[in-house]
Amino acid sequence: MTAPPPSRPLGSLIDELGVGHEPAEGELVLGAVVLLKVLEPDGQVSMRSTWSPGLTWMERVGMHQAAAQTDIPMRPSGRWDTAELDGVDARDDS
Predict the structure, then answer these.
(1) 46, part of any domain
(2) Residue 45 sits in which domain range?
(3) For residue 37, what are the β-bridge partners?
(4) Which superkingdom, per the lineage (predicted)?
(5) What are phi and psi of 38, to 5 degrees?
(6) Which of 51, 81, 87, 93 is the most buried (most CB within 10 A)?
(7) Number of domains within the chain
(8) 48 inside domain
């Protein structure tokens, strides 16, 4: 088994992908969790995660969950199924 390549700071990589954040006046960024979608040499797509030193596992999990909740689409007009979100016709033809 070979050792993984050494890590490098993500600043330029994140910049090249067009990701940015402009802190509001008085806002202090305390940590970051970064999710990376990676194309492997064998053609497989995978996900990687990295984070700021000092973040606890609980903070990291909380940040993942908060981000997921922010990205979930709004449910259409009180419906709880996903057919409308998935583009499937959910009519009841009975």
Answers:
(1) yes
(2) 32-73
(3) 47
(4) Bacteria
(5) -120, 135
(6) 51
(7) 1
(8) yes
Asked if residue 44 belongs to a domain, the reply is yes
- Asked if residues 66 and 43 have their Cβ atoms less than 8 Å apart, the reply is no
4-42 residues labelled b (16+ CB within 10 A) or e (exposed): eeeeeeeeeeeeeeeeeeeeeeeeeeeeebeeeeeeeee
Structure tokens at 59: 């903070």
Exposed (0-12), middle (13-18) or buried (19+): which is 68, by Cβ within 10 Å?
exposed
Note whether residue 49 is domain-resident: yes
